[in-house]
Amino acid sequence: AQTIHQWPVAEIKAVGSPLSLGCTIKGKSSPNLYWYWQATGGTLQQLFYSITVGQVESVVQLNLSASRPKDDQFILSTEKLLLSHSGFYLCAWSPTGRDTQYFGPGTRLLVL
Amino acid sequence: QQKVQQSPESLTVSEGAMASLNCTFSDGTSNNFRWYRQHSAKGLEVLVSIFSDGEKEEGRFTAHLNRANLHVSLHIREPQPSDSAVYLCAVSPALNAPRFGAGTKLSVKP
Predict the structure, then answer these.
(1) How many CB pairs under 8 A join A and B?
(2) How confident is the model at residue B96 (pLDDT cuts 50, 70, 90)?
(3) pLDDT, tens only, A42-89
(4) How many CB atoms lie within 10 A of CB B37?
(5) Are the CB atoms for B72 and B23 separated by under 8 Å?
(6) Which residues is A10 bridged to in the sheet?
(7) Chain A nearest CA to B44, separation (Å)
(8) Phi/psi of residue A84, each to 5°?
(9) How far is B62 from chain A (nearest CA, A)?
């Protein structure tokens, strides 16, 4: 069975500080991977997707970047956090681009 | 750009009564429709996927799609308090990124 893990569970960070959020998928080779962001009380938005190692496509510009250093790993990062980056970050995977996306437990980020 | 709107914003039903949630979308070429639910800002759980007009049942969850009316609904049979959550509609045109609605907050009272 496939499992998806996100870390950290929650973060409190200062404006201007760097950020790195991680996501790993076990039990599935070559998955499509996605990052989503949900502002408090807001709508879920897809930020990035990746169909293969080393390849990442940006969907929404939020002064964030993503990388896929390994087949089973997806990283979301920024060098300088903004207050507007606060929210809930979800990683998801799917077998292909057409399939249902399965979501991880999420990371809650508060930027002060 | 695809717009996805859900109604009602919140819904309270008694345990055992049918719960009905609605979702309208603007892009008639969309062909992937999914309902998810989210418990207290946790990960999303996929409930049902539907790709053609008509009905799709997954356990107590039934989705109805009418693309001509730009409408997809979710019906929850015999809802229980543990079904209390935010329900999200996701609409995808072909291979593009899904657009999510703002959600319907469902409360099921014992």
Answers:
(1) 39
(2) low
(3) 888 899 999 999 999 988 878 999 999 999 999 999 999 999 999 999
(4) 22
(5) yes
(6) A108
(7) 5
(8) -70, -5
(9) 16
